[in-house]
Design brief:
alpha/beta; 7 helices
Length: about 280
């Protein structure tokens, strides 16, 4: 009970989880299934959007001019396979051991020359000499302020001169009007645990930092864990300034990674930043 009581208060900004999210054997299985479901917009966007995205990216930053591609947060290789089909020399980098193992098996079966690396793109070296680095489905916003700065520095160093960083972020429109709440549920073989568990879910707003938190407290017969899923949302001026501080100068703006025109009232911004 004492351990649970600490979660009554609103967490400090970017307070870390106790639950290993990406590499938990059971949770990662569910995440992989979500990635691979073409009809559900969960871990990966729906199949049509993914295909449209890759087609547009190949038009905007074609493999002929940007041959060596690094896909950060590649998951099980949904985008990486399509990029490879377009002629890019692809390296996929992801924290999830299960997703990387699945992607490697797929590449071998399909005889695709794709390099997959398991690692943390904040703390681990993902190499240099890339012409294009992608980070798709707004993964950039889940990082803390410190980690975002670290990543931009690493991405800039990892690109060849003239290379591009293509990624997307959410805007405040995603959370406009959404109020803070707390709720609970009992799950039997749910997302978090294979056996019956009590899930306490909270949503918090950090208005000054334009950052939001979905917190899950998972309680079962083995104990209690906390998973904090943070998301920072951006104004156009803020994300452009972050890129410029990192050294990028030529920045193109779109509404999403399929090339939709930028809309100030839209929920996403796609950026292509050239070194």
């Amino acid at each position: 009970m004492k351990q649970l009581k600490q979660y009554e208060k609103k967490p400090k900004l970017y307070e870390k989880s106790t639950q290993k999210f990406w590499d938990d054997p059971y949770i990662s299985k569910g995440m992989l299934e979500a990635h691979l479901n073409p009809d559900v917009e969960a871990a990966t966007r729906k199949e049509k959007f993914v295909v449209d995205s890759v087609n547009w990216i190949d038009e905007r930053v074609p493999s002929e001019n940007y041959p060596k591609l690094l896909d950060l947060g590649c998951g099980p290789g949904v985008y990486a396979e399509l990029f490879n089909n377009k002629g890019y020399q692809v390296t996929g980098f992801d924290l999830s051991k299960r997703s990387i193992e699945y992607a490697k098996t797929r590449a071998k079966e399909k005889k695709q020359d794709i390099q997959y690396v398991e690692g943390d793109y904040i703390s681990d070296d993902f190499g240099r000499g890339y012409d294009l680095i992608t980070m798709i489905y707004c993964d950039f916003g889940v990082l803390s302020t410190k980690d975002r700065k670290t990543l931009l520095k690493k991405v800039y160093a990892g690109l060849n001169d003239g290379g591009c960083f293509l990624f997307d972020v959410f805007t405040i429109e995603k959370y406009r009007g959404k109020k803070e709440y707390k709720e609970w549920s009992i799950e039997e073989q749910g997302f978090w645990r294979e056996k019956t568990s009590l899930i306490l879910k909270s949503f918090y707003r950090y208005e000054e930092e334009t950052t939001f938190l979905e917190q899950y407290i998972i309680i079962d017969e083995l104990g209690m864990e906390c998973c904090n899923i943070w998301e920072h949302v951006f104004t156009l001026d803020e994300i452009k300034q972050d890129l410029q501080v990192a050294g990028f100068r030529d920045i193109s703006i779109y509404g999403d990674v399929a090339g939709k025109p930028y809309d100030k009232n839209g929920q996403t911004i796609c950026l292509i930043a050239k070194k």
